[in-house]
Amino acid sequence: MKRTWGGVLLLFLLLGFSAGSQAQQHYRIRADVSIKEKLADGKYRLTVGKVYYDKLYQKIVYKLTFPQKETLVIQDTTIYRLDQTDNLREVQTAFILAEFTVFHLALTQGLSDFGMKNTPVDLYKVAKVEKSGTKVITTWLPSDPATKKYLGKLVMSNVGKRLEALAIYGPDEKLLSRQFFTKYVNVKGVEFPMQVTQMTYSTTEPGKSNLQQSTYSNLLVDQSDEDSVYRHPVPLSQLTKLQKQRREGPKPSRN
Question: What are the angstrom distances between the C-alpha of 239 and each of 2, 104, 235, 251?
């Protein structure tokens, strides 16, 4: 599983630099979100709340209400989990770059080609373009030697200028991830898919995969208030205490 995530993360890292450098008119997105997941072990998970993204702060903030009230701040490939009183409860490494998400790509008008046309170097080149009915299927092959070590082809399906589906392969031609972008809306000129479904496959355990479906509603673009939420600070001063608690383990209960 580590190899699967590693390849996808490398793509995010390589493309994220160009995505963050483009000056665009729009800078903020907020939406209600419901995330349904089916994990590789067969368990189901539901998360409900609101998501905030400001490309200037380059962080994703989830204000969750279910299954419990908490705040998730995703920044610099790290997830910070805070409780209702903004105390730091958990820190995890994330296979997510804020600059390379549906939020950032929609704001910078790079979602239609997944940011491929604006990379700082020629990481990928178009190998084949096919038309199937109303769909245009584009196959991209890695042209950068370093990229070829970790990633294989990318296959995109577009209807008009909207990205409909994306498949990411490893260098061994094994499928790493599939994403589907549906139910698009246009708000202030920003094209945004209100439903994103992603399947991530294990390359070490055949047949194992994670399924995640994110459904958005009440989309706002360039919201002028709630600035404190968009730039939600992380209490890094609590990090040392949290790490110490982890090392010491849970304290024995007193009866």
Answer: 25, 28, 7, 19
